[in-house]
Every structure is written in structure tokens, then in C-alpha cells.
């Protein structure tokens, strides 16, 4: 006996993403917590995303001789430290004053890309100055195309490497928590890359109604090509049919996403629609997924079902809320450590080795 007592509670770093979430909850005001955690409607889709990963079983493999596994991968011609990027989320400045600059530093330390939201709280130039890994711009296409075009030009000038057009938001889903709270952004929170004088951004739901173009169609891809030379991904595809249409429209990548359960409540879990979409895509463009990834083994589960990489959403905000950039780095480091554990224990030497043979069946339905 050494007489050493194990550190407990807040004195040790969180051991899981759920522990980060719990600590973030105690630090954030209830309305801010509701804004980041909430989903649309009865939050069925929000719960389904997570439940689909909870149901997934991976087969342990033994005496594989794998030794050190290599979680790095190549997406759109760029090397990533692991098949994980930070999902676009509005206003990291709500979590910590450093906002997206802190997230960019954390992502860079882990060698992971950051997808910067149209509603970032720090300027593209500030974020680019902090970044050491690829930055992508998430694009909301506004009724005012000129505002959208100028946003893209600013990101491109700051060195961003791809555009991720969010296609699941012709209007914002009804997020009941925000409606109940009559949620408004605190006065010091504003989009740093949109013209301050042209719109009132204080209520995200109201701005969504007036600002977003509700009538977008597939011709928007050609428009994006006309204003930018960057690769284009579409985020929010949930059916094989739409994946085929996206490829026909010439996209470079697809993100299978239901917006973290914040848009159509009752939509399926992203993981549950991945396999048919992967079959339709058949390697013709990059295929990413988000929604409910909360452990390294979830990343491996998504790869097994055909994703090239995943985006991690809310947990990164939790890390920021807990300890700014160090917290975001802690979250990403934990996911990578868990991914490496899952790869080792399943005998998966490289990301390219992940396929359906990893999956153990039958799934339990609990
Ligand atoms: C988002 N998401 C999002 N998506 C997008 O395309 N543009 C955006 O500005 C935002 N903003 C945003 C804010 C907050 C607070 C959340 C929680 C989410 C959706 C996000 O990119 C992603 O699809 C989901 O968050 C992924 O699910 P998980 O990982 O949060 O379960």
C-alpha cells in the first residue's frame, strides 16, 4: 500500500466525453446549456443518433500481431491525424472568450481539421492565425447571395481549404428548449464574419427564418463553383437518393448528418442510414458522418459502416466550456486515445483496414 488516494471529482481530468459534458453543464447557464444540447421537437432524433452508436458492437480480435496502430488518414488530399474533424458550430465564444481561436489551436495540436461555422464568433483571419491544421468553411446560403459570396471570399483569402454547404436548413427546426427560454444571444456574442449592420442575429431562430434561403435547389452547387475554386461538400444528406443527386451535381464530399437532431425530429439516426449511402457513393467522393459520436469506438463503428471520417460536435463545446483551448484539446485527445484503444483491441492496423468485418452481430436492441 502506498497510501495514495485516487484524485476524485473535479481534481482530475475527465475520463470520458460524458464527464466533460457533465462538467460543462455545471459551468454554463441553463439557457446556454439548452441552446447547445437541445434538439428539435421531442428530441427523438437527437436520442436516436446516440442510441445507434450504443447498439453497435465491435468484435475483439486476438493475436493479430498489430502492435502500434496508425489512426492517420487522407481526406481530400490532406493528411489528418485521425479520421475526425470538428463539426461546424455557431459561436464558440459562448463557451469561452477565445472561441474558435482556442478550438483551432486544439484541433491543430491533434492534427485534426476544424470546420468553421458561418456564425463563428471570431474572424476568419484570427482563426487562421491560430490554426496549424486544415480549416474548412461551413456555408449557410442566405437569401442575400452577395452576403454569402463575400463570406466565402473572406474565408478563401484567409486560407480555408474547402466549403461545406449545409443543406438541411431551408428553415431552422423548432427547438423547443430555445422557444421556451425565448433564447437570445448575450449582447457581446455576434457573428464576426457577417456584416453587423445588415441583420439582427440576436435570436438564432428568428434570424434563421428571415435570413436563410428556403428555396435552395441543386443548382446552388454550380453557383458555389462560380464563386469559389475550393472543393465543395454538402452537409445534411440522409438518403442514398440524395447522395446520388449530390454526386451528379459534382460535389467533392458528403456529410451524412441530421444536424445533431436539431432539424427534422423523427429523422433516423445518421449511423442507421450510413451503409446504404456508402453503397450509393461507392468511393466516388469523400463520405463523412456526424451526430452522436461520443467515444473513440464510435469513430471506428462509423468507419466500419463506410464513413471516411466523422465530425465531432457538442463534445468540443463541452471541452471549451470546461477549460477553453485546453479543454477542447482534452476532448480531442481523449477521443483519439479511445480510437487507438479500439483499433488495437480489434486488430485494426490502419484506417483503411476498417470494414464491416469489425462489426459483431446480432445487434442487441436494448
Ligand atoms: C450546430 N450545428 C451546426 N451545423 C452547421 O452546419 N452550421 C452551424 O452553424 C451549426 N451550429 C451548431 C451549433 C450548435 C450549438 C450545435 C450543437 C450544432 C450542427 C453540427 O455541425 C453537427 O451536425 C452536430 O452537432 C453533430 O452532432 P453531435 O456531435 O453534436 O451529436
UniProtKB/TrEMBL annotation:
Residues 9-364 form the FMN hydroxy acid dehydrogenase domain. Belongs to the FMN-dependent alpha-hydroxy acid dehydrogenase family. This is Aminotransferase class I/II-fold pyridoxal phosphate-dependent enzyme. The lineage of its organism: Bacteria, Bacillati, Actinomycetota, Actinomycetes, Kitasatosporales.
